[in-house]
Amino acid sequence: MKVIPALSLACLVAGPGWARSQEPPPSPAEPAPPSAQAPAPTPVKIHPGVIELGRDVFLPHLYQDTKASFTSRESLIGLALGGFATAAISFQDQKIDDYWEAEDPIGDWSEIGDQWGSGFFQPAVVVGMYGWSRWTKNQELATNAEVLAEALILQGLTINLMKPLVGRERPDHSDKLSFPSGHTGNAFAFAAVVDDRYGHKWGIPLFALATFTGLTRMEDRAHWASDVAFGATLGTVIGYAVSKNHDDYPYQKAWRRKKKTKITLLPLLPSPGDDRTGIMISMPVR
Q1: pTM for the whole thing?
Q2: pLDDT at residue 28 greater than cutoff 60
Q3: Domains of the chain as residue ranges with CATH
Q4: By the 8 A CB rule, do 113 and 107 touch?
């Protein structure tokens, strides 16, 4: 009887095709769900309102600026060196003043330094920079304008607090607010920030102008040489300290806020064959 083997062979040959014929036709492929689009980046708010600017920007920054200017190692070294130089120059104050009174080497050119350090032109430049940054949406320019403003404000507060405390009489006897020189401090603070932010090609000419400003204050007999020396010291130290310790984007509310280390405690449960328990400590490694 060869019928059964033949039937079996026929089933084996025809089986796969027969089985495929019994399967339901595949359903049409469903379209893949659209990929989730990344959310649009939040625009950087570089121009806060007046209240937010004072509360979240200037006040926190000025606090940190003060710490950087008077407690950092670099600032303390600069203040110490400037203080020693000021003390040494003070022994020659009268001779230097006699020279300026007798020779009058700068003449009418002294008006340039008097105006540049007066506290009008530098703030005008800062306001212009900030206004242009609003117009052009330039974050870097807004940053640099705000750094300049903070440096000028801090050095102005420092010098004007020192003047009545020291009570030194001016060479022309006009008042007792001679030490230190505010005009010189303004000019050197401005030069230091610009030098740090824009490089020596701008910084060196501004330091030269700041030096000329200090000389004109002696020419006008508004300050002794040591007044000018310490005004230059304060302006330079504060200008560099504020700029170097400042955020790239100061309009963020946090000013160099340190990230807190997150420590996680997890229970360690017993595994099969091991009845020990405990606590696992998890913390990120930087």
Answers
A1: 0.70
A2: no
A3: 50-244 (1.20.144)
A4: no
